[in-house]
Write a structure and sequence with these properties.
The chain has about 190 residues and is α/β, with parallel strands linked by helices. The protein has a single domain (about 5-189), classed as 2,3-Dihydroxybiphenyl 1,2-Dioxygenase, domain 1 (Roll), CATH 3.10.180.10. The chain has helices at about 20-30, 100-110, 160-170, 170-175, and strands spanning about 5-15, 35-40, 55-60, 70-75, 90-95, 120, 125-130, 140-145, 155, 180, 185-189. Helix 1 (about 20-30) packs parallel to helix 3. The protein starts with 6 loop residues before the first strand and ends with a strand.
Length: about 190
């Protein structure tokens, strides 16, 4: 049986300088900025992943037709070598192709005694969070609910770093600008 997957939804990392991160991943490597989030404080997703996400930026870069890498910014924090306690710095999100497959994965995990830590609608994807019971790795199954590509980015950070604004273009950023809604329904224009 198992879980049907289509790739790596995202790997999450931590940075203390989103501006320079965007310059490297978008400016040098050419990975499009496809999601920009400014999370509210307090943490809107307590317990979903390790640490406190309140007030952090969370940006995604498209690295293939299906896959992304993501960064949480902790600007006023020294990022230690082990950043797993800083807020989801070390988690793997695996793409499932549909909402139906996400619910099948949830049922499979629960029927095998794996606790679902959280189920969240992020506005651009729907996710379930759980831990690898053998190694303690924070894992996520996610299905895209928004294209999150160059043609239709998901841009929620009201005050993006200059490099992201430049990468997307001020006119396009304004056109695609979304507002975060903390009621669990993602974002709205």
């Amino acid at each position: 049986m198992g879980v049907r997957t289509t790739g790596c939804h995202h790997m999450a990392f931590v940075t203390n300088d989103m501006e320079e991160t965007v310059k490297f991943y978008n400016g040098l490597l050419g990975f499009p900025v496809v999601v920009t989030l400014q999370l509210p404080d307090p943490d809107p997703f307590p317990g979903a992943v390790p640490g406190n996400l309140g007030g952090s930026r969370h940006y995604f870069f498209r690295i293939s037709a299906q896959d992304t890498i993501a960064f949480f910014e902790f600007k006023d924090t020294d990022v230690p070598a082990d950043n797993s306690l800083l807020g989801a710095g070390n988690h793997l999100a695996i793409t499932v192709p549909s909402e139906a497959e996400l619910q099948k994965a949830k049922e499979l995990l629960e029927s095998n005694g794996i606790k679902i830590k959280s189920e969240l609608d992020h506005g651009f994807c729907h996710s379930i969070y759980f831990d690898d019971p053998v190694n303690g790795i924070a894992l996520e199954f996610a299905t895209w609910t928004h294209p999150c590509d160059e043609e239709e980015p998901f841009l929620q950070d009201a005050d993006p770093v200059p490099a992201a604004l430049s990468a997307v273009g001020a006119d396009r950023y304004e056109r695609y600008q979304l507002k975060y809604t903390p009621d669990g329904h993602g974002a709205e224009r």
